[in-house]
Amino acid sequence: MKKILFAMTIVLGMALLFTGCGSEDAEQKNSENIASETENAAPEKDDEAEKAAPEVKEEVKPEPIVEGSGTYEEITQEEAKEIMDDKEEPAVVLDVRSFDEFNAGHIDGAICFPLESINDETRAVIEQFIPRKDQTILVYDNDPERSKKGAQLMADIGYLNVKEFGQLDDWDYGTVEE
Hints:
Strand order of the largest sheet: 1-5-4-2-3
Distance between the termini: 11 Å
Structural class: alpha/beta
Number of helices: 7
Number of strands: 5
CATH class of the domain at 78-170: Alpha Beta
Radius of gyration: 22 Å
Helix content: 40-55%
CATH topology of the domain at 78-170: Oxidized Rhodanese, domain 1
């Protein structure tokens, strides 16, 4: 389990590192290719041919994250532990601290998405790791304000069952190190 979480953390880190790298060049080349193909295409002879011609589909980007658009619930650490122990409906335990803090000690089974990495550009990566919008997500940090902000961002992305339970420093149920 630790190896899987570590691998997920590495993959997320690499995805965050490379997100946006060269994206302007790729978009510009794609636009140039479409323009070139359009210029080289044979002119249409009548209106019917124009209607039958395939349309060039634009890249669909997700809606931007609208801060404050979602809601989350604040719960106690005891309630969070009960949810974590429920084997019938497993929850995602989300640590929004930095990777270094996560590696120094975290709740067993937690995944790490640093707070600074939760944004429009990384939304698709987050949604790959947590595909179900109704999945229970338990959020924590060392700073209660950051924990609340992380929970709010996850709710703003569209997750419907986000719960914030405070600081790792107050966690009485043990941690693991990578």
